[in-house]
Amino acid sequence: MPRRPLVVGNWKMNLSAAKGRELARAVADGLPPGAVDVALCPTFVHLFPVADVLRGSRVRLGAQDMFFESSGAYTGEVSPAMIAETGATFVILGHSERRHTIGHLEDDWMINRKVRAALAAHLTPILCVGETLAQRDARQTLDVLTFQLTAGLVGVSADAAERLVVAYEPVWAIGTGRNATPAQAQEAHAHLRRLLADHWAAAAAQAVRILYGGSVKPENARELMAQADVDGGLIGGASLKADSYLGIVSAALAAKG
Ligand code: 13P
Q: Is 131 assigned a catalytic role?
C-alpha cells in the first residue's frame, strides 16, 4: 500500500485566534481534491477556536506539544486527554525548538514518555528528529538520527507503526531559508526507515510516514516530496499564509500522484 502523503502546518507561536480561524477557513476552503492528509497545529489556546472552523472539513487538527502525565500538579502543562478533547488528532513531539532553542527543555527520555502517552491517548505523535549544523559538519548526522529515533521509540511496539509519524527536521534548515537538498533529505529518510525496519520489521517500517521539515516552500516542495522516502512535509513559515501552504499541498499531490 503506498503511503498517503501528509502535510502538517506548524504555526508555532504565531497568529491571533481571529487570524488563526481565518487561515484555517481559507485552508479548508481551498484544499485541492486528492489523496493527501492535511493538518494544522495552532498554539494550545487556539486549538478550540480553530477546531470550530475545521469541523466537518478534511483538515485535521494537531497540537505542538503535550505533557506525558494524565493529570496532577504540573503547572502550565497540558495532558494527552486535554489535547484529544479539543478534537486534535496529531501532536508534534520533540520539536528542535523545544530540544534546543527554548532553554534545552526536552531530552530524549522525556520525548519518549510523550510518544508513548500520545499513542495511549489515541493521538498520532509526530516525532521530530534532526541534527544541528555542527553535527552535520562533524559527519554525525546519521548517528544523531539513530540515537534520537531509537530513544524516542523505546517501548513502542510495531502495532503503533501505522499511527506513528516521524519528521526529519535538520536544525540548520529550520526558519533559515536553507532547505536540505532532496538528496540529503532522501539519505536521512532512508536511514530512518532502515532503523524502523531493524527496530520492528520491514512491513511496519513501510507503513510509517516520514515528513521532511525545514524551509519547505511551494517552489522546493515538489522535488523534496518526489523522493521515495519523503512522505510529506512539516511546514513552519510557509504554513502561515493560505496560498503558500496550499501550494505545498498541491506539490505533495503532484509529487505523489
Ligand atoms: P520552517 O518551515 O519555518 O523552516 O520551519 C520548519 C519547522 O520547524 C516545522 O516544524
A: no
